[in-house]
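BUG: 3D viewer hangs when loading the predicted structure for this chain

Environment: internal workstation, default settings.
Expected: structure renders.
Actual: progress bar stalls at 90%.

Input used:
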Amino acid sequence: MSEREKDELARLFAGICLEAAVPVMEIYASDFSTAAKDDRSPVTEADTRAEEVILKALAKALPGVPVLAEESFSAGFRPETGSQFLLVDPVDGTKEFINRNGEFTINIALISHRVPVAGAVYAPALSRLYLGGSSAFAGEARPGGTWQAAAGSPIRVRALPDTGRTAVMSRSHADDATRSFAEREGVTQTVSAGSSLKFCLVAEGKADLYPRFGPTMEWDTGAGHAVLSAAGGSVTCPDGTPFVYAKQEAGYRNGAFIARGAS
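Structure tokens produced before the viewer hung:
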């Protein structure tokens, strides 16, 4: 895939995220109710309505490309992913959505040969959009609007310092393994954030590391991984081996990973 194609896909995903944000924000502003899925994770109408918008737009723009989307997956839809497929998380950080702290995101990514090559992460309550293709950009964008290249600025990871590192950790899922890793890595400052925004904070040089030892699914990480890679960062397993996708044998569940800025 060419660099131009990656950028075109990232812009496509950005536009779809902005479109899907309209029903998300309508529900966010309402007196919405919450249900529990089979795995006991929370879900709201925002998840389902946003996913409907995204799937319709992707089917039109990229017909024939398999889509692995959180809510349809939970409902039992298991497409054959092949060498290329799309990952969709219509509302990542549902707990943040429910708590109305604004730190939830809409995520779309393309996986090619087990690697994220293009993605968009949109935090509609913060009007903050991140794109990752051949390079990474971030900027302000309103739900239902269009992405204007002039509104974005290139983002890049910062060099990883030998000491005094900053780690971004999950607001909902930090655990003892995460804290122990941070101590071994010389982390002296931590930043809390919800959803895939953690990848984006590393991508724009506001943190050095994002360690995650708790379980996630591939749609939780694909778009943020694409943005971070485009910004010059990396995501690996804790032992340094590649962190890959299309883990069908594991039900598309991720193991532990470390997201880093420039080494």
